[in-house]
Design brief:
Blueprint (H helix, E strand, L loop, with lengths): L4 H10 L7 H4 L1 H7 L18 E7 L2 E7 L7 E7 L13 H11 L2 E5 L11 H15 L6 E10 L1 H16 L5 E5 L10 H6 L7 H12 L23 E8 L3 H13 L4 E10 L10 H17 L1
Parallel strand pairs: 3-4, 3-5, 5-6, 6-7, 7-8
Antiparallel strand pairs: 1-2, 2-4
């Protein structure tokens, strides 16, 4: 499909400099640009007022808990992992999306402030993700959980969600669902979609390689905690929803993972958003497809309960 008109407009307005040297710019400048000086921040959606929003710790990991239901009954819980290449992003930056997920799903949403690279390289982020998931099962009353726990992540956060899902399986903890939105699933970075969309489509191949280097450092990139697509056995994993964007370097690995799950008998539904760019899910103010994808994912999560 051709680029969606809204994606085309986005590229015309916000396409980053293709010759960006991330090492020369420096990490602080990158984080500043993508946080306080984020030119698309106003398009991430409204900070809808909820009856319950509170910052807490899960075994030392910062989290923010959201609840749209004004009651005090127990509810399913969705653990959300933000994107940002394991290098930037935060609970604050993902605030609008987390509030929206709480409203759309009717669940308690726990947004995770995992440690970032390169100050805290692999496996710090994966360890933090698993710590929070494990704590949800250990302290359901604290989270007002009814026992149903799902994970969702976008981009690098999708990587953390997928890793936490197989760690939960191996620990005998039953997740109701895993929702992976434009996820990073293989650090080989060598699929056809990298060849097709590695330049000029928001998330470049060189940018992704830089992110991977900051996080993985000298670790074996075939380690399933880095590349869950390399997990030898995917049987018994939680039912899954995989969202991909057509014009995204990460498209092929997400769709490959969905096929592997299906072949192993894991209930899975995969949906590609034609003409869409990486990151569309987080920008409802710019992309109509963001609302459509959120409805789809929230519906899949509700069905799992």
């Amino acid at each position: 499909m051709p680029l969606h008109p809204q994606a085309r407009d986005y590229l015309a307005r916000y396409l980053p400099d293709e010759e960006t040297d991330f090492d020369a710019i420096g990490l602080d400048a990158i984080r500043e640009t993508r946080a306080q000086a984020d030119p698309v921040a106003i398009h991430r959606g409204p900070l809808t007022k909820l009856p319950f929003v509170r910052d807490e710790l899960a075994e030392g990991v910062p989290i923010r808990i959201y609840r749209a239901d004004p009651g005090d009954g127990r509810l399913p819980v969705v653990v959300y992992f933000h994107g940002g290449g394991w290098v930037y992003g935060s609970v604050k930056r993902a605030d609008a999306l987390a509030r929206d997920l709480a409203i759309r799903t009717g669940a308690v949403v726990v947004s995770v402030g995992y440690r970032l690279a390169p100050e805290d390289p692999f496996p710090a982020a994966a360890d933090d993700a698993w710590t929070v998931v494990r704590d949800l099962f250990a302290r359901p009353a604290f989270y007002q959980s009814d026992g149903g726990v799902a994970v969702i992540g976008e981009s690098a956060g999708g990587n953390l969600a997928a890793v936490a899902a197989w760690q939960a399986r191996d620990a005998g903890l039953r997740l109701t669902h895993q929702a992976l939105v434009c996820p990073v699933l293989d650090l080989a970075l060598d699929t056809p979609s990298y060849e097709e969309f590695g330049r000029g489509f928001v998330l470049g191949g060189e940018e992704m390689a830089w992110f991977a280097a900051q996080y993985a450092r000298t670790a074996d990139r075939a380690d399933p905690r880095l590349s869950p697509l390399r997990l030898p056995d995917v049987t018994g994993l939680a039912p899954a929803t995989v969202v991909t964007a057509e014009y995204d370097v990460l498209r092929d690995e997400g769709e490959h993972y969905a096929r592997r799950l299906a072949e192993a008998g894991v209930p899975v539904d995969s949906r590609r958003y034609d003409g869409a760019l990486h990151g569309f899910f987080g920008l409802p103010g710019l992309f109509d497809q963001a609302g459509q994808a959120r409805d789809y994912v929230a519906g899949r999560l509700r069905e799992s309960w």
